[in-house]
Amino acid sequence: MDQNIAFSYIKGDSLIHKCPAWIKILFIPFINILFFNLPIQYCILLILIQFIICFTLKFSIKQQTADLKPVIYYGFLLLIMNSLIFIFSNGFEQLYKSILSGIKNPMGIVKDLPENETFLMLVKLFCILQSTSIFFKTSTNLQIRQGLEDIELAIRKVLHLKKRCTVANAVALFLNFIPMVWQIWNQLKKAWFARKGKSGVTMFLKLMPVLFSVGMKKAWNTARAVSIRSGE
What's the rounded Cα separation, in Å, for the pair 98 and 117? Predict the structure, then answer.
């Protein structure tokens, strides 16, 4: 069940799993920045390639969508907000005419999508989140930390600075806290449903303060443990 938690590591022996973490840490941001500034067609191509990679790594649809839900929810929220803005600006009658024209000519909507700023942003965010998902699913917390330490030590060696990993430890804590938050949320939901709670607005209102409290405590304990082990 832990493998279905968002941004959680999934065991494997593929080349991506075996690839040193410092290479993935440098490569993934670079390729995302590159494709973020290229035309939309390249982002769509990268999304398809990453889907093929995920299936090659034997990641199920459920495991992939667990990481991509934020963009899906965000896109749905933007769709609702745009519809409300359109209604208040033009009225229900104009909205009805637009929907009717879209039904009659769906290809017209498809042609306009590549020029829509909201659509462009969602596709690029989806692409970035997909790359991030592959990184977390093929790298353990220890590998991420060691990769960051390797990068910082190499930079300090070039600059003739003291041999320490202060920045790497801080960044590693931040990166590893992302899957930790999803794990805490998953545990809270299990406890909520075990007590016959129902999914809805009430669940989020009740669990979000608990998520914040438990998350802060977990972050504090983790930071103290790292500080004690590093002798700082």
Answer: 19
List Cα–Cα distances, 145 to 16, 22, 51, in angstroms: 17, 9, 26
Which residues 6+ apart lie within 8 Å of 62 measured at CB? Answer: 4
Residue 131 CB neighbours (<10 A)? 20
User: Tens-of-pLDDT digits for all 232 residues of the chain?
Assistant: 444 556 778 888 888 998 998 899 888 888 878 877 877 788 888 889 999 998 998 888 888 887 777 777 777 777 777 666 666 666 555 555 555 554 555 444 445 555 567 777 788 888 888 888 888 889 888 888 888 888 888 888 888 888 777 777 777 777 777 777 777 877 888 888 888 788 777 887 888 888 888 877 877 777 777 666 655 5
Determine contact, residues 20/27, Cβ cutoff 8 Å: no
The predicted model scores a pTM of 0.67
Q: Rounded to whole angstroms, how far apart are CA atoms 141 and 225?
A: 15
Q: Which long-range contacts (CB under 8 A, 24 or more apart) does 111-116 make?
A: 114/40, 114/41
